[in-house]
Design goal:
By secondary structure, this protein is mostly helical. It contains 4 helices and no strands. The protein is elongated, with a radius of gyration of 31 Å.
Length: about 170
């Protein structure tokens, strides 16, 4: 019986010695795998956020584009293609003021020239405040709401301009 206990104790000692030699490597590999998993997860989240932001920016540029494209050229302050300048980093911070205010003023001029003075400022103030509020930390959450309202109103104004004024694209 004593021989059996001695062999069992030796086997346990060897097993624990073996596991102690290999345990840190296994734990280290598990930690590395866990850290790599977190990094991949966060990179995925960041990439998805960038894609969503680009999709929103593309939608904004497209709305400006179609709104300006509908107006006859003599009433436009900017050309429709200039809406896509909003994709330029840092420059877009300034250019958005020109796009929001310029598009509204273009529609104002169109409606005034056609005797439709009931449109007010064509969302000029709304666009201006949408641009300004994003720089005020306390009020920056209101800016996207104002932008959505602005674009809904601009798309409504766009519907009031007959399509016959819009140039036909030739391919």
């Amino acid at each position: 019986m004593q021989l059996f206990l001695c062999d069992a104790a030796t086997a346990i000692a060897r097993a624990s010695e073996h596991s102690m030699r290999h345990a840190p490597a296994d734990e280290e590999a598990a930690v590395i795998a866990l850290v790599a998993g977190f990094i991949v997860f966060y990179l995925f989240i960041i990439c998805m956020a960038i894609l969503v932001a680009l999709a929103i920016q593309a939608a904004i540029c497209y709305i400006f584009y179609i709104c300006l494209k509908r107006l006859p050229p003599e009433f436009r302050e900017q050309e429709p293609w200039q809406a896509f300048l909003l994709f330029i980093p840092c420059f877009n911070v300034v250019w958005q003021f020109f796009m929001f205010m310029g598009t509204s003023r273009s529609y104002q001029r169109y409606f005034e020239a056609h005797g439709k003075n009931n449109q007010g400022d064509c969302s000029y103030q709304l666009g201006m405040w949408a641009c300004i509020l994003q720089f005020i930390p306390v009020a920056s959450a209101a800016s996207p709401v104002l932008m959505i309202i602005y674009f809904v109103k601009m798309l409504d104004l766009r519907k009031q301009v007959p399509e016959e004024f819009a140039p036909v694209e030739e391919y």
